[in-house]
Amino acid sequence: MIDLFDKYPEWVGMPEFDQQNKKPFKEIIVRFETENDYLDFQKKLNQQLTLKTKSIWHPFKSHWGVERKVYVNEP
After folding, report:
1. 3-class SS at 20?
2. Residue 24: is the preceding peptide bond cis (ω within 30°)?
3. pLDDT in single tens digits along all 75 residues of the chain
4. Which whole-number Å values give the CA distances from 12 to 6, 37, 38, 49, 74, in the listed order?
5. pTM for the full predicted model
6. 43 Cα distance to chain centroid
């Protein structure tokens, strides 16, 4: 077995990454009989949905978090 620190010495001394639990408290399935019902639901939530939308947060929460983070390699 290869020790990752031997293969990637730049990782030595790096802080450990701990991913916080991002699972929702509750999930529900909502069904709409008509397109008008679907449009009315969007208005009530004040969120724009498309036919490709599979999930949303309520209240709205960007999937990027507070701000979109971009990592750059500075010289």
Report:
1. coil
2. no
3. 556 556 777 878 888 877 777 788 899 999 999 999 999 999 999 989 998 988 888 888 776 655 566 677 777
4. 9, 56, 52, 45, 20
5. 0.53
6. 23
